[in-house]
Design brief:
heterodimer, A: about 110 residues, mainly beta, Immunoglobulin-like, 6-stranded mixed sheet, 4-stranded antiparallel sheet, globular, B: about 110 residues, 12 strands
Amino acid sequence: GAGVSQSPSNKVTEKGKDVELRCDPISGHTALYWYRQSLGQGLEFLIYFQGNSAPDKSGLPSDRFSAERTGGSVSTLTIQRTQQEDSAVYLCASSPQTGDTQYFGPGTRLTVL
Amino acid sequence: AQSVTQPDIHITVSEGASLELRCNYSYGATPYLFWYVQSPGQGLQLLLKYFSGDTLVQGIKGFEAEFKRSQSSFNLRKPSVHWSDAAEYFCAVGAVGNKLVFGAGTILRVKS
């Protein structure tokens, strides 16, 4: 079946602009995660959604970062007023429920000039 | 706080040789443990996982890992490496809410 998909695959933006990154999880998966992979910091957890519960935002690095998940499916990660240090690969993962294996998408490579 | 240590940043092995990638974790309860592999420009692919039960787990592509609670380790092994195994390997521990904490990764190079 279809895996986790992310769009765009690459995004180049100018410092100060807002960007939106999209994640389509595997159908039926109730848990959705965002991670960031950067050279300096490795793989870091950002935010986690489980069903209709309030999201765990404990990994978001600043208030410029936000995410939403509509209808328990598609998720959008928004970065406002992008900075050069936001340049990274943003990975989305989904799992059938909390505690299950996470399946990762191919990522979105964000470059902030 | 949960943490994962992969002490080897790079490892080079000859094709056909055996492989062991080290992983040590810090976690307050029985951990969920994972190994993922990432090829250049690709996402993370699950190799294997440990949740409970048999401490020797088998994964895809001929990989296996052994959970040793006394050593807080979850080392990845393969008896005979193929050139296509060259990639970056990440060990991860499942934390609260199952958000994953990853190690820094080990880059595997395979020489012919």
